[in-house]
Amino acid sequence: MLEKYFSLHTNQTTVRTEILAGISTFLATMYIIVVNPAILSQTGMSFSGVLTATVLLSFFCSLMMGLYAKNPIVVAPGMGLNAFFTFTAVKGMGISYQTALGAVFWAGIIFLLLSIFNIRTYIVAAIPKQLRYAISAGIGLFITFIGFVNAKFIVANPATLVGIGDITKPDQIIFIVGLLITAILVIKRMTGGIIIGILSTTLLAISIGRIWGSTPIVNWNGAFSSPDFSLLLQLDIAGSMQLSLLPVIFAFVFTDLFDSLSTFVGVAEAANLQDEAGEPRNVKQSLLTDAVATTLGGLLGTSPGTAYIESAVGVEQGGRTGLTAVTAGLLFLPFMFFSPLLSVIPAIATAPALILVGVFMMKPVTQIHWSELDDAIPAFLAMVLVPLTYSITQGIIWGFLSWTIIKLVLGKTKEVSIALILIDIAAIVALVLEHL
């Protein structure tokens, strides 16, 4: 039944491979279960309520991505979007979290309309191939950077912006050993290599952390917690229908749109998950799932849901079908009751997987026309600005704008579609609104 529904043989994969890939993806994305509540609770929302909403959204929408869109991509509340919700919408503009949830809901409705009428699919088709390759590589660099930051191997430095952490600390030594173990397992193409690497690093952290250093690396915070449904349907739909909140709704729409688009494009380019026309596979269904995730976020009590770039960890493990997303989605649900167990797997254990995914996602960079500077310069800007600005959206915006201006000045108007110009206008509006 699974073979027939997910076309496993056609996609050159097996049930075992897909399940292992789903486990890998979950281990790489499970941090959102506690990180999202930590950010959104600063608005006055209940930590446990946001945690329950996060788990439910991740569960339902990852299952939808797997069963409906049949893509190996996890959907969960987006990082960056939750920060915008907290620090810009609620704290910056002084609106209530109920009103902000209403804005999330309306952004989701706009997404649904764009998806139903296939407008978002046209947007995907408007992205030049050279920028697609660059976006994939840029996301790879971004994921690698996130991995190093999560492990505290790269830290903030007032003199140079970033610098290397204290590699003499126990957690850093364990991280380096874990990175080497995981790299060797991946190089040898061992089945479940990423999972084995994560678990091996966790065991090292548990054992060494207890006998070396002033504080343990892994903390046990119990096992059970009760679900909290206090934020369910707490959104203020009417209150969010104000002219003053249009910039907030637009920002949710624009950021979520291009975060999700870039994830689909980047993962598809890196893993050959494309249709006969060279577009990301089942892109309309995937974007519709993403739209549902945003709408559901407002209803459940969390920031917008979006496709997760960490899904590339499962793809690197061999995941090629929706069974990967279904497996990961199912793994989210128990943590509505057992969220304290997540503290057992530290960031230094999942960081090596994120770093190595960067290698995997750099493959498309070889297809960029580096000798043709009118292609190479916009592609390079898109690629490097994703990690350097810590924003996929910013990398895409400046890649699009530079591509359009350069091509038009050189008279290569056939390489600039009407859809791309409309995207550029939306990008400029987003930049202006962000700095007002």
Considering the chains and any ligands shown, give keywords for the structure.
18 helices; mainly alpha; two-stranded antiparallel sheet; about 425 residues; single chain; two-stranded antiparallel ribbon
Tell me what the structure shows.
The protein is mainly alpha-helical. It has a domain at about 1-135 and about 220-345. It is built from 18 helices and four strands. It has helices spanning about 1-5, 15-30, 30-40, 45-70, 80-90, 95-115, 120-125, 130-150, 170-185, 195-210, 245-270, 285-300, 310-315, 320-330, 345-360, 375-390, 390-410, 420-435; strands at about 75, 155, 160-165, 305. The protein has a two-stranded antiparallel ribbon. Strands 2-3 form a two-stranded antiparallel ribbon. Helix 8 (about 130-150) runs antiparallel to helix 15, helix 10 (about 195-210) packs antiparallel against helix 15 and helix 11 (about 245-270) packs across helix 18 (about 420-435). The radius of gyration is 21 Å and the shape is globular. The relative contact order is 0.21. Keywords: Cell membrane, Membrane, Transmembrane, Transmembrane helix, Transport. This is NCS2 family permease. One of its GO terms (molecular function) is purine nucleobase transmembrane transporter activity. InterPro entries: Azg-like (IPR045018), Azg-like_bact_archaea (IPR026033), NCS2 (IPR006043).
